[in-house]
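Morning run. Coffee first, then this:
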Amino acid sequence: MDSVRPAVRIDKWLWAARFFKTRALAGRACALGRIQVNGQFVKPARDVHIGDMLHIANDSGDFDIEVLGLSETRGPAAVAKALYSETDASRELRLKVAAERKAMMQFEQLPAGRPSKRDRRHIIQFRGRG
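And here it is:
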């Protein structure tokens, strides 16, 4: 008889660990190939086990994490944080990318205000509606 390892669906776990706001978004990320378990792309119904290594690409950045606990319910952020451990390399890379993004914002030229009537005409002409 096989020993049964506890498992949870990957979309439920990602939602419970607060990587995505809804389970539907977590499932869509799996379907789009943004989630890897032990180096393999997965479908939303794939089970995740304690000790699995996950690579998660979402709006917050790319995470490389190890699963430390399982949960099917979404709880407080402190409980969700206890479900995984992020690798040091992943954390450093995310912080570096965030710092670069913040530095680039200093060089962006934002418009001074609303476009003038002449500017609006140029915008409309550029878009091909006029």
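The chain has one domain: 8-127. Good start to the day.
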